[in-house]
Amino acid sequence: SMQCVPGLVLALSSLLGALALLQLSLHLRVPSRYGKHEERLCRPRGRLPARCAWFLQELPSFLVPALLLALRSPPRLEPLGCRLLCCLFCWHYFYRTFIYPFFTRGRPFPLQLLFFGMLFCIYNGFLQGYYLIYCAEYPNNWCTDIRFTSGLLLFLLGMGINIHSDLLLRQLRKPGEVIYKIPQGGLFTYVSGANYFGEIVEWFGFAIATWSLPAFAFAFFTLCCIGPRAYHHHRYYLKTFTDYPKSRKALIPFVF
After folding, report:
1. Separation CA 179–CA 14 (nearest Å)
2. What distance in Å separates the CA atoms of residue 125 and residue 133, rounded to the nearest whole number?
3. Looking at the DSSP assignment, which residues form a beta bridge with residue 191?
4. pLDDT value of position 27
5. Averaged pLDDT score across all residues of the chain
6. Residue 120: closest CA among 59, 69, 173, 185
7. pLDDT confidence of residue 36
8. Which family does it belong to (predicted)?
9. What is the Cβ-side half-sphere exposure of residue 84, based on CA atoms within 13 angstroms?
């Protein structure tokens, strides 16, 4: 059966950190070309409907840890803290795979970006699942440790903000519409990227709760990947809508 190889965890986590810096350098000035940042002259070739694309992209992040858990012999049932942490990761991706795609009203998604998204989800799903299922060692009272409890609260807060912000974004469009409107309500009152802010908070909460290098590397990747996107969304809104609230920040309330 599979065994824990600490060197593998370190190598994969380090590579994830390097990928985060690469993402930041590539998209700090130029956004990823999908959604509202899509080149208007591009022909709509090689695309999938948004619902299908999001389902396929996020599915490996749910399936890979689930398969690792199923293949472990004997099953990893203790300690409770480790089981809860693995469930948190799978819970997020259950929502992103089986719930979120069926309500999204986004534009068709480029196949090239879908391919790289799936590769990343396989990679990160393996790293987080492998570490938690085969390598992580937590004391039996980890559930009462301040790192676990504070991280869990941040994770739940971030997930709540993310889901609520997604709901507000969906309500902006009627079925069949593809135009962009100014988001209103919730944390959108203060920031342009409320949904991104929620996801960043969520994964930093997960990193604190697990207190592990793989989770911190993933939180850093999330910040470097969707942080710039939130910034470009903010600039898009300011440029497109003359009545866009000038008091809103790009990503973090009262800071940026």
Report:
1. 40
2. 12
3. 249
4. 80
5. 87
6. 59
7. 60
8. Belongs to the steroid 5-alpha reductase family.
9. 18
